Amino acid sequence: MLLKGVLFFALCALFQIGSAAIREAQSVRVQGSLTCEGRPYPGAKVKLYDHDTFTLDDKMAETETDSRGYFDISGTENELTRLNAKFNIYHRCRKTVPICYYKASFAIPYDYVTSGQQASKIFDAGTIELSILKKDRDCIN
């Protein structure tokens, strides 16, 4: 029984090492700005992820909006398949009690995922008005 466990572990390790060698570096970059009731929204968290179906999403990068509500975020992930990129925004626009955050998630079109360590295209998210978004709550982000 112990031998089977060791053999299984060794095969899993070999698969991981072998698949790592054939994984392709893929990158994505997103820029945009956030407003709350028409005014720039500084200090919102913006996180870039590779969405995975059967495992936890891989966080590729994290930033905050500047004093003008602007963000520019990019990240790279090595994957066997094409990245399923998304970005999440965590904010407190129109939140009267500053406990937890509102969360909004946006898919990034596959056309903006490029091969290599740096994104060769930029997904322009435009100006996002936070006060009109669907309001999911997130206390752990």
From TrEMBL:
GO terms for cellular component: cell surface; extracellular region. The keyword Signal applies. Residues 1-20 form the signal peptide. It comes from the Eukaryota. InterPro entries: Transthyretin-like, Transthyretin-like_sf. It is found in: Secreted. Keywords: Secreted, Signal. Belongs to the nematode transthyretin-like family. This is Uncharacterized protein. It comes from Mesorhabditis belari. The lineage of its organism: Eukaryota, Metazoa, Ecdysozoa, Nematoda, Chromadorea.
